[in-house]
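mind reviewing this stuff:

——
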Amino acid sequence: MHTALPRICAAGLAAVFLALPWGGASAADSGSAAPPLMPAHRPEAQAAPAPAAPRPTPPVPATPAPAKPAPSTPSASADGPRIVTATHRWLMGSGETLADAKRMCRAEAVRRIVEQAGLVIESVSEVENFVLTRDQSRSYAAALVEVRSAEERLERAGEGMAVVCTVRALVDRSDLARGVRELQDDPGAARRAEDAWGRTERLAREERELRASSPQPGDPAWSALQDKRQALARSFDELRREKAAVLRSMEEETRRAAAAAEPGMTVSEIERLLGPPRAVLPENERGYACGRWGEVWVVFRHGVAECVRSRLQDRPGVGECQCDGLSTGIIKR
């Protein structure tokens, strides 16, 4: 038995690929400004027998312009889900279609959401002792973050037009931690997530470099830019297919486990039916151990199944691996 890996945020993993391609966006600043300092009190001057010459008024410091809001980064101390909003403004180039502009604008907005979620994963990795590079944190975030909605609108930009995209995503620190454990427990899935993110980042970088040269329709660089965007679209399609396959596998395993696992079965009997568990909590001092198939947990005591749960519940002095607590989390016992 090895280290427990709680459930992956399957819904988040599905939704982000449906919103691809990605890109960056700025969101509202989550910090609150400190209250302004009160001006120091000065005692009133004594009245003089004769009117005194007016004293020069000291220059009043100019009020600084309000600072541009920084992208909102989910608080590292927030354990619950949080909706993060990001917006990007895409200037349409000469000959660029509206469909391409919307797709690339949305890509940039989603990419910034991924950057923010990657920062949360970095903070989680420090607490959970994960060993992750910056690129791994971003690739896992792209696979785990749940994008809830995307909106676009057109506006004038000088003599041209711009597309303004707003995306909203669910960032849940606890679910991200569970998802990272799940990916680390499945080296194949982790490698595919890293490869997909690396490929997408490379294609997006090359697309930006081509676009920076301001190619015009008919130029060789224009054709190369269109080819690069088509390659990005194919990469996103591949990611969506891979994600769909992972989701189907998880859903099927969850259904099979809920139907097949029964209290009274031994570990070996359940493993013959379902295969090895995805995650394990080793036997504790009370004789309880847990194994997870899909999103179903089977709680064993001294090697015999005592209950089947949809989720574990941590109880003081008892721990997570037990069959006590509310019946809403228990499928069979």
